[in-house]
Amino acid sequence: MNIALEKYEELHDIKCGGLKLIQNVHGFRYGTDAVLLSDFVILKNGERVLDFCTGSGIIPLLLLARNKAKEICGIEIEEEIVRTAVKTAKLNNAEDKLKFICGDIKNASKIVDGSFDVITCNPPYSKSGSGMMSESNKIARARYEVDCTLNDVVKSAAKVLKFGGRFYIVHKAERLVDIVCTLREYRLEPKELQFVHTKPGKKAELVMICAVLGGGVQINVLPPITLADGGII
């Protein structure tokens, strides 16, 4: 399908099932963390998936390639970026399964239809601070907790997940204690955890967690991932 691109849009082959992604060149570009999280997610046939802070829609697109989910929906607060994500769905002839909504994830329970089996999130990692001054508005909103905090993300996930549903998140490893405490506050019990290292022998940079709404108290710590080339995160 031929899709007309705006001057601020560019096309990327994501090297996965022939799917292609359109990105806003002025916005936050997806990185290794989004790809890692999509690989970390376990999907079952016929499940409904919701991606918070979806940005360009890279995580929904990568999950679409598995051909298991009944529906994959992404929520993003930037209207211009959502318009681009909708084009990506059209480009890949996936409008029946892949949907994007412009909205605030803090209001997710009011803007999505029903509950979901799986929620994914690659949220802003850093608390708001002086570093934002050197960023463009779109990039700052993706990097810093301007529009939503960790608490906002987890609280909203608990509201729109089915009981027993799974919440997958990738975040800075240094915020692990905050993440676990916040998850438990909203009855999301961590069940699987995996650290990501950029180089052998270096401290973990990222952590990925799968938490289950109403799950029992037991966690499986998976072998760490090391990015052999020190890849971009």
In short:
The protein has 233 residues and is α/β, with parallel strands linked by helices. It is built from seven helices and eleven strands. 26% of the residues lie in helices and 29% in strands.
Task: List the total number of helices.
Answer: 7
User: Shape from CA axes?
Assistant: globular
Mean pLDDT: 90
Q: How many distinct folded domains?
A: 1
Order of helices and strands: EEHEHEHEHEHHEHEEEE
* Secondary-structure class: alpha/beta
| The CATH C-level class name | Alpha Beta
Number of strands: 11
- The first-to-last residue Cα distance is 32 Å
Q: In percent, how helical is the residue content? A: 25-40%
Q: Tell me the major beta sheet.
A: 9 strands, mixed
Radius of gyration: 17 Å
CATH architect. name:
3-Layer(aba) Sandwich
CATH superfamily: Vaccinia Virus protein VP39
What is the strand content?
25-35%
Query: How is the CATH topology named?
Result: Rossmann fold
Low-confidence stretches: none
Protein described:
The protein has 233 residues and is of the alpha/beta class. The chain has a single domain, classed as 3-Layer(aba) Sandwich (Rossmann fold). Helices cover 26% and strands 29% of the residues. It is built from seven helices and eleven strands. The strands form two sheets. Strands 3, 4, 5, 6, 7, 8, 9, 10 and 11 form a nine-stranded mixed beta sheet that branches. Strands 1-2 form a two-stranded antiparallel ribbon. Strand 4, helix 3 and strand 5 form a beta-alpha-beta unit. Helix 1 runs parallel beside helix 2 and helix 6 runs parallel beside helix 7. The longest helix is centred in the middle third of the chain and has 13 residues. It is globular, with a radius of gyration of 17 Å.
